[in-house]
Specification:
CATH topology of the largest domain: Heat Shock Protein 90
Structural class: alpha+beta
Largest sheet: 8 strands, mixed
Low-confidence stretches: 341-412
Radius of gyration: 30 Å
Distance between the termini: 76 Å
Helix content: 25-40%
Number of helices: 18
CATH architecture of the largest domain: 2-Layer Sandwich
Bound molecules: adenosine-5'-diphosphate, magnesium ion
Number of strands: 26
Mean pLDDT: 82
Strand order of the largest sheet: 7-6-5-8-3-2-9-10
Strand content: 15-25%
CATH class of the largest domain: Alpha Beta
CATH superfamily of the largest domain: Histidine kinase-like ATPase, C-terminal domain
Length: 612
């Protein structure tokens, strides 16, 4: 029978990732909550004292433990969740190591009271340092209550490493929040030092919890995280043969300087896994400043056999069989949502007024494989084009814009990210840095560099022809570099050439730049090549071109091709920029994540003069 506890045999034990899992109260709590969840509990009561240092109690209404098995529950390598090593590859329960209760009991005063529905009476076990003190039957409700007191009473070294009650409490809270987010059907009640802290009733049935619909997820996030901006969060659901990603994600503008608000789960397991985080951040690429992180509650689910949870003793890091595909799924889902069709359609390129591109040499046809796009644009046409302005219903009124846009910080008042530029009058430039435009109801102040940078970035994204060929330099430019840099340049020569950056490697000395992308504006080649090298260096070497690197390289090219702050722009040049901005989705960010523009509403100005 599957639900009875058995001792695992050695070959299975040997295959389980070893390591101590009990470090602090929250790690005890994690094991207890996971056991209760595995037991099918619908309601959990948690009592803590001094952040769990003094007492941790978890009471559940799950299926309970068979009376005869109670002594086994605190034996090492005793579990009801695993039989053979093959089971390790199809684990759907949270636990499987059969070690947690044994480890916990060995460093605390432990008591367990449990009853199965079919049993007339419950069973109580009390141990100290995992020595049995008493074992007897007594009346009990169906379910299991486990109480831990005086954690590490017999391991003073470890006790010394515990933080203050408040810090340990905070860590427990974070854990409970995570468990509650991933199990919206379960009720959680928490009390600390005798005071009830919260009671979160379940918000759906167990079946509903599995699909994590938008309504369920929003309710739970509101309840558990109480984030002020949660209303503006976007619901994402993206699925393919590798799995499914479902989540609520913050729109640009409400990010934080910490990764703490990125709650990520794999098959309902709370993880801080790099593959998952990286996939999410990739989806946000160009919407985040360096050091800023989105707020996300995201669930990736897949076949249990496609992800190995047995790599890390606390299962916080995983190994995916299709890590790259999983990352792409996440980033695509998020990216698609952020550029969502409901408020901004993808621009369609329309090419006009072909001019000659005589200075451009033969194309270097080594596009990054996953980003190559077929383009019917001839070499001649490539130099000058503009995007067709988008037709969006009701763009001139803010009323029809989704809430997300209206509430996103950095745009005041609500403003579309794709503008009808014909309606804006250029009023002048300020400090050779800001361009000031107006229409009948607003003043628009633009950072000229960020503006141009974004335009170019979008152009590059649309059309590889614009960067994949190079403009040969009449006099090659010598750039001195360190041996390590030379090696990196040598390694990435073909890849950088596919972005129009060609050079000869001068062993031990540096590089000789022979060609640059046609749109490059600045003649400071060292700056461009150094930035490119930094991008390459910050990415682990992989086969093919990773998407983030591709975007970063394009952002770097855009940055170096854009007008600078402090550069005087003539009216004609501004007009040209204004024209090129048609159809570009600014989303108030440049590709490096900086703000592009800021609005001043007429009513705001009128308010200054008491005219409203
Ligand atoms: P694991 O969860 O890896 O199996 P544990 O040491 O955490 O190992 O638990 C040992 C066994 O005790 C579990 O396999 C399960 O059968 C039983 N058990 C522990 N906690 C509970 C609970 N709250 N409800 C029902 N059974 C439990
Ligand atoms: Mg367990």
């Amino acid at each position: 029978m599957r639900d009875r506890i058995v001792l695992l045999d050695d070959p299975v034990i040997d295959k389980i990732a070893a390591g101590e899992v009990i470090e602090r109260p929250s790690s005890v709590l994690k094991e207890l909550l996971e056991n209760a969840i595995d037991a099918g509990a619908a309601s959990l009561r948690i009592e803590l004292e001094e952040g769990g240092r003094k007492k941790i109690l978890v009471s559940d209404d799950g299926r309970g433990i068979c009376a005869e098995d109670v002594p086994l529950a605190v034996r090492r390598h005793a579990t009801s969740k695993l039989r053979t090593s093959e089971d390790l590859f199809r684990i759907s329960s949270m636990g499987f190591r059969g070690e947690a209760l044994a480890s916990i009991a060995s460093v605390s005063q432990f008591s367990l009271l449990t009853r199965e529905a079919s049993a007339p009476e419950g069973m109580k076990l009390e141990t100290v340092g995992n020595e049995t003190i008493s074992l007897y039957s007594r009346p009990a409700p169906v379910g299991t209550t486990i109480q831990i007191q005086d954690l590490f009473f017999n391991v003073p070294v470890r006790e010394k490493f515990l933080k203050s009650g408040q810090v340990e409490y905070a860590s427990c809270v974070e854990l409970i929040q995570a468990q509650a987010l991933s199990r919206p059907h379960i009720s959680f009640i928490l009390s600390h030092n005798g005071k009830e802290k919260w009671a979160w009733p379940g918000v759906c049935t167990q079946e509903e919890a599995a699909s994590m619909s938008e309504a369920v997820l929003r309710k739970r996030v509101q309840q558990v995280l109480a984030v002020a901006e949660a209303d503006s969060f976007l619901y994402v659901q993206e699925e393919n043969q590798y799995g499914c990603f479902t989540g609520l994600i913050s729109p640009p503008g409400v990010e934080k300087a910490t990764q703490k608000n990125m709650w990520t789960f794999v098959n309902s397991r709370w993880v801080k896994d790099k593959t998952i985080r990286y996939g999410i951040l990739r989806g946000y690429h160009s919407h985040l400043l360096k050091g800023q992180y989105p707020q996300v509650v995201g669930f990736f689910t897949c076949e249990p056999s496609l992800v190995d949870v047995n790599v890390h003793p606390t299962k916080a890091e995983l190994r995916f069989q299709y890590a790259a595909e999983v990352q792409s799924l996440l980033s695509q889902g998020i990216r698609g949502k952020l550029r969502g069709a409901e408020w901004a359609e993808a621009p369609q390129a329309v090419y006009v007024a072909p001019t000659s591109m005589s200075s451009v040499s033969q194309p270097v046809r080594t596009f990054p494989s996953d980003f190559s796009r077929s383009s019917s644009v001839s070499e001649k046409e490539a130099r000058s084009f503009t995007f067709a302005p988008l037709r969006m219903g009701g763009i001139s009124t803010t009323a029809s814009l989704p809430k997300m846009l209206q509430s996103s910080a950095g745009i005041s008042p609500a403003a579309p990210s794709i503008l009808d530029w014909d309606r804006f009058l250029f009023q002048g430039s300020w400090f050779d840095c800001y361009l000031v435009f107006s229409d009948e109801s607003r003043i628009l102040v633009i950072d000229q560099h960020a503006f141009h940078e974004r335009i170019l970035y979008e152009k590059y994204l649309q059309d590889p022809v614009l960067y994949s060929r190079y403009q040969p330099l009449l006099i090659p430019h010598l750039m001195a570099c360190s041996a390590e840099e030379v090696a990196l340049f040598a390694e990435n020569q073909a890849q950088l050439a596919s972005y129009g950056c060609t050079y000869k490697v001068l062993e031990g000395k540096g590089i000789e730049v022979t060609g640059v992308p046609p749109l490059l504006r600045r003649q400071q080649f060292d700056g461009l090549f150094t930035s490119l090298l930094q991008e390459v260096r910050s990415h682990p070497p992989t086969a093919g071109m990773p998407a983030t690197l591709h975007h970063q390289v394009l952002a770097t090219l855009a940055c170096h091709s854009a007008v600078r702050a402090g550069e005087k722009l003539g009216a004609e040049e501004v007009q040209r920029l204004q024209k090129e901005a048609h159809g570009v989705d600014f989303l108030h960010n440049c590709p490096h994540g900086r703000r592009v523009f800021k609005w001043l509403n007429r009513s705001e100005v009128e308010g200054w003069f008491d005219r409203t």
